[in-house]
Amino acid sequence: MFNKRCRPRLLLKKRNVFLFATIFCSVQMIFGQYSTQLSSKPIVVREKFDSIQSIGIVPVDFDYYHLTAGGIREYSKKCSNISCSLICEQTKKIFSDNGYAVTFLEESALVQYNFKALRLFYNTVNGAIYQSLYSYDRLPGARSNFSYSIPSVKDLCNAQNVDALFFLVGFDDCSTGRRKKLKAGAVAGAVAGAIMAALIGVGGYTTIPPDYTALNGALVNKEGEIIWYHRVNKSGKINLIREEAVGTMVASLLKGFKKGTSTTEGNSGNGTKHNFH
Fold first, then answer.
1. d(CA 52, CA 227)
2. pLDDT by residue (tens digit) across 90-112?
């Protein structure tokens, strides 16, 4: 027969477990110590990657936002331009150090190749790659069957005398000084709220999203095939208008980007092809 005196103890244990889990998640979210990075290694189609000797870096698509105390994202053109310039320079340095001939592609040289439409195609593919490989609802087998492409870029590559194009896309959400104070002051309140929620059996409470930075790169050959892809993202204040921060982020993104190496993972180029033509 069930001992009624045990029931309060069982409820208390359950409540303690829930309380601990809630507080832990609250603190993790507030301090930004979690990451949605679920795939940490680059993808490379090895037999096509190894033939690349020269790379054209297309204009970087990077947006820098200030997060206000009210949680509003305010786009900063000035900071975005600084980030783009630093990312380009750091990428060129790493490519050059690894023996590649590198060319920056200017916007003016891309107009006749309808680059805006090409950029839209790439952004569509980039979104599909993120959903299938890097989101929490990623598709099983998407990595081993990786095979994505955009329309051929042969004419553009030949005109620029390069073997492949390199696309860089990302963003940086950086808290303003006022928001950082609000975020720090919210810790005690959020934890207290979590405690109260646990005690009264209510699981809902509000937290302030952490700073978040993401950067991804893709190497596209003349046929439009993506033969190398990697994404890195970090939570917490990164601030990619600082040269040191950019150097660390780009180095992490391009880790293993070397001729003839086999430290990256991917498929052999025989997977299901995803064409977005």
1. 10
2. 999 999 999 999 999 988 878 88
- CA-CA distance, 30 to 96, in Å (whole number)? 40
Residue spans of the domains in the chain: they are 35-176+209-268
Tell me which amino acid residue 41 is.
K
Helices (runs of H) and strands (runs of E) counted in the chain: 8, 10
Element (H, E) at 137: none
Q: Which of 183, 162, 194, 159 is nearest to 67 (CA)?
A: 183
Whole-angstrom distance, CA of residue 265 vs CA of residue 127 = 20
CATH number of 35-176+209-268: 3.30.160
Cα gap 65→92, rounded to integer Å: 25
pLDDT digits (tens, 9 = 90+) for 140-160: 888 888 999 999 999 999 999
pTM: 0.72
* 3-state SS assignment for residue 261: coil
